[in-house]
Write a structure and sequence with these properties.
Helix 2 runs antiparallel to helix 3 and helix 4 (about 135-150) packs parallel to helix 5. This protein has about 400 residues and is of the alpha/beta class. Helices cover about 35% and strands about 20% of the residues. The termini are far apart. It has a six-stranded mixed β-sheet, sandwiched between helices. A four-stranded mixed β-sheet has the order 11-14-12-13. The protein has helices at about 1-20, 70-85, 120-125, 135-150, 170-185, 200-210, 225-235, 300-315, 330-350, 375-385; strands spanning about 45, 50-55, 65, 65-70, 90-95, 105-115, 155-165, 185-195, 215-220, 235-240, 280-285, 320-325, 360-365, 385-390. The radius of gyration is 45 Å and the shape is rod-shaped. The chain folds into two domains: about 35-240, von Willebrand factor, type A domain (Rossmann fold, 3-Layer(aba) Sandwich); about 280-390, OmpA-like domain (60s Ribosomal Protein L30, Chain: A).
Length: about 400
């Protein structure tokens, strides 16, 4: 009778051994992936939430191009995770397969739903154990479970299924149609096939088509950093609107080239090289030309007046009106006479320097047009001046 007790014990030991083998961590031997980067500020989240559903069923232990399909799947998700910028979306990782006789573990949420973090997603992915169990029923359960994970989700949603698609019937397709009914046009389903099983390809294409806005592809097409960047952009990202380019501001013109723009120039058409003040007027006020109540030119003003003589000699057709001005010391009538005397003194200076008298005229303005404040000594000194006005 002891032999009959040994048979169940043997089965339990074999099952435990199989579970131990299936639960081993999947390790990659692929070279380190060099991800493309997305320029900061140029992209916005296309989705508010995403769930990755990873196939960990027994068929993923099979070889494809000399490598376990489970390893290829994890390498793909690692590359996707390294490429995906950390923007404001919630992420989740759900696995399916495991052991069919453990229905409560045929699909498991191993990360999220929570604000996406590159490092936390990588940690969860690295903790996923090796393949075990069947495929079709657990994938349907995983899709349905994702609907529960996202029950309170707002905005656009992406579900990314990574599987070989092997040994599947229509149950996952029906589950995809059901979850599409739950979320409507907010949901896009994307399927990434590992290996090249034709039947698996057909089923995964139907699953992706169920959402109306997703697509199905093969992991072989996403092996480069550029192709992975294209996949990430298609699924997760939208280009941000370019910042509006400000209309070019038209710079005010300076028609006479005196350094004072036309909008501020009170004395247009001054000749090239003339000394002008902030108003754009051809004036000599930087050096005091006249003492108080005087019409005699101060010697320190000669170099400035010589500049005007040189300009007039270079422009033989230029005619100039010499405007005399005063400060407000004294009566208006006295200052009018004084301003005329000052203008005549400057005219005589120009004629003595060789400027033709017929090109010159004089006019006195007295105290009527101050160029500076008469409230200060410095301002009054600047008002004892002459200005030169080109005339036609």
């Amino acid at each position: 009778m002891k032999k009959y007790y040994l048979a169940p014990l043997f089965i339990v030991m074999i099952s435990a051994l199989l579970m131990g083998c299936a639960g081993q961590e999947v390790k990659s031997t692929a070279p380190a992936f060099q991800p493309s980067t997305f320029q900061s500020g140029h992209y916005l989240p296309k989705v508010n939430n995403f769930v990755v559903i990873l196939d960990t069923s027994s068929t993923m232990a099979d070889k494809y191009q000399g490598q376990d399909k489970a390893v290829i799947a994890k390498d793909f998700l690692t590359a996707m995770n390294q490429t995906l910028p950390e923007l404001k979306y919630n992420g989740a990782l759900r696995t399916f397969g495991h052991f069919a006789y453990l229905p409560d573990r045929s699909t498991m949420l191993v990360y999220g739903v929570k604000p996406y973090s590159t490092s936390e997603f990588a940690s969860a992915l690295n903790g996923v154990k090796g393949p075990g169990g069947d495929t079709s029923i657990p994938l349907a359960k995983a899709i349905a479970a994702a609907g529960g994970d996202l029950q309170s989700a707002q905005g656009p949603i992406a579900i990314i299924i990574v599987s070989d698609g092997v040994d599947m019937d229509q149950l996952p397709v029906n589950a995809a149609k059901a979850i599409n009914g739950q979320f409507g046009d907010r949901l896009c389903i994307y399927a990434v096939q590992v290996a090249d099983d034709p039947g698996g390809k057909a089923v995964l294409e139907q699953i992706a088509k169920a959402s109306g806005c997703g697509f199905s592809t093969n992991v072989d097409r996403l092996a480069t950093s550029s192709s992975m960047a294209g996949f990430v952009e298609s699924v997760f990202l939208a280009k941000s609107a370019p910042k509006p380019v400000p209309e070019p501001v038209a710079m005010p013109m300076d028609s006479d080239g005196d350094g004072v723009t036309d909008d501020k120039d009170q004395c247009p058409n001054t000749p090239k090289g003339a000394t002008v003040d902030a108003r754009g007027c051809w004036t000599y006020a930087a050096v005091v030309l006249f003492d108080l109540n005087k019409a005699d030119i101060k010697p320190e003003a000669y170099p400035m007046l010589n500049e005007a003589v040189l300009i007039m000699k270079k422009n033989s057709d230029l005619k100039v009106q010499i405007d005399g001005h005063t400060d407000n010391t004294g009566t208006a009538a006295y200052n009018m006479t004084l301003s005329e005397r000052r203008a005549n003194t400057v005219m005589k200076y120009f004629v003595d320097k060789g400027v033709e008298a017929e090109r010159l005229s004089v006019k006195g303005f007295g105290l009527t047009k101050p160029a500076a404040s008469n409230d200060t000594k410095e301002g009054r000194a600047k008002n004892r001046r002459v200005e030169l006005t080109p005339v036609k």
